[in-house]
Predict the structure of MBL fold metallo-hydrolase.
Amino acid sequence: MGRMEHPPQPWPVGAVERLEPLVGRVLATNAGPYTFTGTQTYVVGDSRGLAVIDPGPDDAEHIAALLAAIGDAPVLAIACTHTHRDHSPAAAPLAAATGAPIIGCAPLTLEDDGPRSDAAFDTDYQPDRILSDGEIIRLPSATLVALETPGHTSNHLCFALLETGALFTGDHVMGWSTTVVSPPDGDMGDYMNSLERLQQREDRVYYPAHGPQVDKPQQLLRGMIGHRRLREKQILRLLEEAPASIPAMVEQMYPGLDAKLLRAAGQSVLAHLLDLERRGMIARDGELFLAA
């Protein structure tokens, strides 16, 4: 499960791509090593009423592109899959411009004493309504159902479009790379359970927040779950040979990795280690981890 190469430019930044009659996509201007070509905001519905999924970063150019895509249609909901800063900050200015309520994931406050990842989160996010699993956003032409999919973040939701079998997967399943699961909020056990939950469904297509649409969801899910299980076995083999620190494991598990991605790899290894420790399969001694 490697990372997809960036497609050749120009990318369709700011333009509305019509994916199906009820779904349009607008690409934000925040391309990067963790966002691929940028955050993809989805506009769902028709001229009688729209929902905007993952409004993206608080960027004037992107917000202007969204307002152009919306046109004269009433916006009935601004829905966020989670509150990383490339997903939810545009919700507030878009709500101010359209009068729409912010509906979707819960705000996130980390309360642990460990290494903090608050900097990645939108601490200004204030939803008007928090959706629980199975709750509905009802539009004149479309029905969106919230699915709780924790793992990438504890507050992550996906949204199922009942009329067409599409699933908006946020960062839970991406079209270009495996998802970063970064403790303390990211949880590998929850992430695997959420992937397995999607396996029980029959969604036709996935529309992720980053990367191309996924036309064979079940095939991708099998690959993602298999990839994580192989990483887990790799960690257990290394620790059976000798106790090891996270940097030493990253060096062996990710040879030649771009330096920009080393921290994410370390967090992914940590997420696996915490899950294995919780299951009683490994132990730790200071900075070292060892087989139980």
In short: The longest helix spans residues 217-241. Residues 108 and 123 are 7 Å apart (CA to CA). The chain has a mean pLDDT of 94.
